[in-house]
Each structure stands twice: as structure tokens, then as C-alpha cells.
Amino acid sequence: MTDDPSKKTRQLPAAESNDATGTRQVEAFLETLEHPFKAEIENLRALILQSREGISERIKWNAPSFCVGGDDRITMNLQGKGFFRLIFHCGAKVRKPAPIAPIVDDPAGLLEWASNDRAILKVTGSADLEAKQASIADLVRRWIEETAPHAD
């Protein structure tokens, strides 16, 4: 962190962002969020946090991000009109070469693959989220199993 007053955001240190402070940070963010899909964002957040033990959260890219062992794995992108996105990724640090095939199978066809280790899921409203809930929870569990070192 710098003392430069022109810096508008404060990045939390990893150790601080992976405990209850990260949850408080996300809760404070959501309290002030003005977004047409705020209810869906909150419901998706709860779904992700309940999908697997060991998931923590914090704010990254000006949106909720979900971590395992301090590494971001799934991050919301709240930009766009008529939808918001859930970005499945492998964190900021590349630990090994990109896989030659997508990291997880997507039998429901919900993911748009930006690369074999980065995928995007769009949510267009409450009916869309409800229809995708079971598949999203399954994708979250499998993504973490495949990408998070020592996820168990």
C-alpha cells in the first residue's frame, strides 16, 4: 500500500483478504452496489460459497472474487448490459503451462472458453441463474479441484 492520496483503491494483503475481513469487504461492497442484477449477484455469491468448503472471498477487479488457499479462482465481472459474468481462472500467477484441453468438462455448455485455463459464464437474470444453479455449483467444485493446489 502506498501513501499516495491519488490512489483510489486499497488492495488488501493476501493474509488479510482470506479471513473474515474478506467477507466484510464483500458485504460492504454489496451494501453499496447499484446494479440491475444485484439480487442475482448476491444469490450467486451464496451458491459459490456453499458449493464447497474452504472458499474465501474478497474484492478483485471491483467485484466479488472467490479464493482457495489465498489464490483467486473465480471472479465476478459486473460490467456489461443485460448480464454479468463469472470468470473461471487460475489466479494471477501462472504455475504451469496452459493445458492443451479445457480444464473441466462442461456438459451443460455454460462456459465460453477464452483459453483452456480461463472460461466465462454469463448470467442474464433470475430465471437464467435458477436454471443454471446445479450446473454452476458443479462447475465451481470441479474448477477448484482442478486448479487449486491443495484444495482439500
Number of domains: 1
Number of strands: 6
CATH architecture: Alpha-Beta Complex
- Give the strand line-up of the largest sheet: 1-2-3-4-6-5
**Helicity, as a percent range:** 25-40%
Strand content: 15-25%
Runs with pLDDT <50, length 5+? 1-18
Helices and strands, in order, run as HHHEEEEEEH
* Span between termini: 32 Å
Describe this structure in words.
By secondary structure, this protein is an alpha+beta fold. It has one domain (36-147): Aspartate Aminotransferase, domain 1. The chain contains 4 helices and 6 strands; from the N terminus they run H-H-H-E-E-E-E-E-E-H. Strands 1-2-3-4-6-5 form a 6-stranded antiparallel beta sheet. A hairpin with a 2-residue loop joins strand 2 and strand 3. Helix 3 (38-51) packs parallel to helix 4 (126-147). The radius of gyration is 15 Å and the shape is globular. It starts with 13 loop residues before the first helix and ends in a 5-residue tail after the last helix. 27% of the residues are buried. Residues 1-18 have low confidence and may be disordered.
From the structure above, extract its key features.
single chain, 152 residues, alpha+beta, Aspartate Aminotransferase, domain 1, 6-stranded antiparallel beta sheet, disordered N terminus
Give me a quick take on this structure.
The protein is an alpha+beta fold and 152 residues long. Helix 3 packs parallel to helix 4 (126-147).
